[in-house]
Design goal:
binds alpha-D-glucopyranose, alpha/beta, Trehalose-6-phosphate hydrolase, 4 domains
Length: 555
C-alpha cells in the first residue's frame, strides 16, 4: 500500500485563495499564511493550479515560461519557502504541469511561427489551408475551430483549447528532451509531484482528417484522446522523473473510459499514481452537451460511480475522488440543496466521497460549503470558456435569460470566486479589489467553521482521520445496493473483516428504509447532530441525511 492510498488531498486555486499584498490576486505568501489551517484540516497533499508566467488567457494554463513563478504570485524564493513550511507540516505539494500546449507567448512558439525551417518549426502542429478552409473541421473545447491562422508563418496552427494555447507536438524528440529537462529542474526545486493537465491528449493521431460532427463527441477528439504514443510518453516521464524522485502524480484524463484509466494508473505499467475522470460530472449534460440546463438523476450517478469503483479496482488502477475543481460548478449547487439544507448537503457529499475507494480531493471552499456565484450579468464572468460559450449560445438563438441561467449552473467561475475566510470586506481574501468578485452574500466563512464543532470543516477532519484508521476504506470492494432507488443512495464496501456502509438521502423529503441493515454497526460520520431516527423495523433518513457506518464482516 502506498502512503497516498490513505491520504487526503486539497486543491488550491491560488489566485482566489489568499491575497497578501492587496492587489486582488491570491499569492504564495497568502498560501504560506494558510498552511496551518490546512494542517488543522488534516490533509497531506496539495495540488496547486499553475503559477507560471502566463498572459492569462486561461488563468495560467497558457504557460509562457515553465521554469519560474509568475511575479503576481511571488518569487521562486517564496515558492521554496512555501515548500519548506508545507514539509514541516508533512504536507506534500504537487505542481500543475500543462504539457499538451503552451501559450503563444512561449519562446518555442514565437520561434516556431517564424518560418517552416527554424529549429522549433515542428514543436507545434502547423497545416496549410485545405481548399481555402481550415485544415480540419474539429471543434475547440473553447468554442469555434481548433485552427487559427498565423500571418507570420502563413499557416494554421492547432489549438484544442483557447486560440492562444497552441498544442505541442510530442512526436518531436527534441521537444521531449526539453520537457523532461524542465521537469527534472522542478524535481530539483524539491516539489513532491505533478498534476498533469489533460495528459491523455499529448499524443496525436496522424494524419489528421475531418470528422462527422454527428454527435457532440465527433468533434475531433478521436485524433487526440489516448493517441498512439501516450503510454510510451508517460512511461518515459515516469522512468526519468517520477520514479527516481519518488513523486506523486495525478493525471487529468479527458474523455477516458475505465479501461484506459486503469491502464494509466495500474502500478505495473509505471505511468501515473492516479487519475481524475469526469463521467460522474457529465450526468447533468443533455445529450452529451455541457451548455444546457441539465437534470440530475440519482440512479444515473449511482451507475457511473459503480462503473468506476468496480472497474478501476478490476483494472488494478486508482481513482482520484472529487466532486468539483476549478473547472466545475460547486457540487452542492449542482446536485443538492445549497440553501436551507446547505450544511447537510455538503456533508452528504463528503460522506459519499470519503466512503469510496480512491484518494479524495477537497477543492478549496468545499470544507465550508461554498456555493455557486449566481452571477446575473455576463460582465461578471471572467472565464473565456464561459464567455465564449455565452456568445455561441446567443448566436444560436438562445435568449439572454436562458444563457445566463445555464452559466449560473455550469460556468467554471462558480468555483473560482474568492475563498471566504471571515466577514471583513471580500471575506478576508484581499484588502484590494478581487480579480473576480465574490458571489451571493454568504453567512459561512472559515472563521465561523473553526468556532463550530458541528461544522462541515469538523466533519471533513473526522473523515480524513478515519481513512487511515480503517483499512476497509482502502481495500474494501464495492456494492451499490438498490441502484434504481431515486432518492436514497446505499453502498457497501467489504474486506475480510469489516463492512463499511454509506446511506444518503439525496432528496428534500424524509425516506424510510429497513433498520435491520444498521445492526452491529458503529457510526463513523453523520450529517445530523442527534443520531439516527429508528422506529421499530424502520429508520428514517431526514432531508439530505447521510451516514457512514462500519461494522464487522459476518462470515
Ligand atoms: C484542464 C484545466 C483547465 C484548462 C484546460 C486547458 O482541463 O483544468 O482549467 O482550461 O485543461 O489547459
Amino acid at each position: 500500500m502506498a502512503w497516498w492510498h490513505t491520504a487526503t488531498a486539497y486543491q488550491i486555486y491560488p489566485r482566489s485563495f489568499q491575497d497578501s499584498n492587496g492587489d486582488g490576486f491570491g499569492d504564495i505568501p497568502g498560501i504560506i499564511r494558510r498552511l496551518p489551517y490546512l494542517h488543522e484540516l488534516g490533509i497531506q497533499l496539495i495540488w496547486l493550479t499553475p503559477m507560471y508566467p502566463s498572459p492569462g488567457y486561461d488563468n495560467g494554463y497558457d504557460i509562457s515560461d515553465y521554469q519560474t513563478i509568475d511575479p503576481r504570485y511571488g518569487t521562486l524564493t517564496d515558492f521554496k519557502e512555501m515548500l519548506a513550511v508545507a514539509h514541516r507540516y508533512h504536507i506534500r505539494i504537487m505542481m500543475d504541469l500543462v504539457l499538451n500546449h503552451t501559450s503563444t507567448e512561449h519562446p518555442w512558439f514565437k520561434a516556431s511561427r517564424q518560418d517552416k525551417t527554424n529549429p522549433y518549426a515542428d514543436f507545434y502542429f502547423w497545416a496549410d489551408a485545405a481548399a481555402g478552409q481550415v485544415p480540419t473541421n474539429w471543434l475547440s473545447r473553447f468554442s469555434g475551430s481548433t485552427w487559427e491562422w498565423d500571418d507570420q508563418r502563413q499557416q494554421y496552427y492547432l489549438h484544442i483549447f483557447e486560440q492562444h494555447m497552441p498544442d505541442l507536438n510530442w512526436d518531436n524528440p527534441v521537444l521531449r528532451k526539453k520537457i523532461l529537462a524542465m521537469m527534472a529542474w522542478w524535481a530539483e526545486q524539491g516539489i513532491d509531484g505533478f498534476r498533469l493537465d489533460v495528459i491523455n491528449m499529448i499524443s496525436k493521431r496522424i494524419p489528421f482528417g475531418n470528422v462527422s460532427r454527428a454527435t457532440p463527441q465527433d468533434d475531433g477528439r478521436a485524433y487526440y484522446i489516448n493517441g498512439p504514443h501516450v503510454h510510451h510518453y508517460l512511461q518515459l516521464m515516469n522512468q526519468k522523473i517520477f520514479a527516481p524522485n519518488h513523486m506523486i502524480t495525478v493525471g487529468e484524463l479527458a474523455s477516458a473510459g475505465v479501461a484506459e484509466t486503469g491502464e494509466f494508473t495500474n502500478p505495473a505499467n509505471h505511468e501515473l499514481a492516479m487519475a481524475f475522470s469526469f463521467e460522474h460530472l457529465k450526468i447533468d449534460y443533455t445529450d452529451g452537451r455541457k451548455w444546457t440546463l441539465g437534470q440530475f438523476s440519482l440512479p444515473a450517478l449511482k451507475a457511473v460511480l459503480t462503473k468506476w469503483q468496480v472497474g478501476i479496482a478490476r483494472e488494478h488502477g486508482w481513482n482520484a475522488l472529487f466532486w468539483t475543481n476549478h473547472d466545475q460548478p460547486r457540487a452542492i449547487s449542482r446536485f443538492l440543496n445549497d440553501d436551507r439544507y446547505r450544511i447537510e448537503s455538503q456533508k452528504l457529499l463528503a460522506i459519499v466521497q470519503f466512503g469510496l475507494q480512491g484518494t479524495p480531493y477537497i477543492y478549496q471552499g468545499e470544507e465550508i460549503g461554498m456555493r455557486n456565484a449566481y452571477f446575473t450579468n455576463i460582465d461578471q464572468y471572467d472565464d473565456r470558456e464561459s464567455r465564449n460559450a455565452y456568445a455561441a449560445m446567443r448566436q444560436e438563438g438562445v435568449d439572454t435569460a436562458t444563457a445566463l441561467a445555464i452559466l449560473q449552473q455550469k460556468s467554471r467561475d462558480n468555483a473560482r470566486t474568492p475563498m471566504h475566510w471571515n466577514h471583513t470586506p471580500n471575506y478576508g481574501f484581499t484588502t484590494g479589489t478581487p480579480w473576480l468578485q465574490p458571489g451571493l452574500d454568504d453567512p459561512v466563512t472559515v472563521k465561523d467553521a473553526l468556532a463550530d464543532p458541528q461544522s462541515i470543516f469538523a466533519l471533513y477532519q473526522q473523515l480524513i482521520a478515519a481513512r487511515p484508521a480503517y483499512p476497509v476504506f482502502t481495500d474494501g470492494d464495492f456494492h451499490m445496493l438498490a441502484p434504481d432507488d431515486t432518492t436514497v443512495m446505499h453502498y457497501q464496501r467489504r474486506n475480510q473483516t469489516a463492512v463499511l456502509s454509506v446511506w444518503a438521502n439525496w432528496s428534500g423529503t424524509p425516506q424510510s428504509r429497513r433498520a435491520a441493515d444498521l445492526r452491529n454497526t458503529r457510526l463513523l460520520a453523520h450529517n445530523y447532530p442527534d443520531g439516527l431516527q429508528i422506529a421499530g423495523e424502520l429508520f428514517t433518513l431526514r432531508p439530505y441525511e447521510a451516514v457512514l457506518l462500519v461494522g464487522k464482516q459476518v462470515q
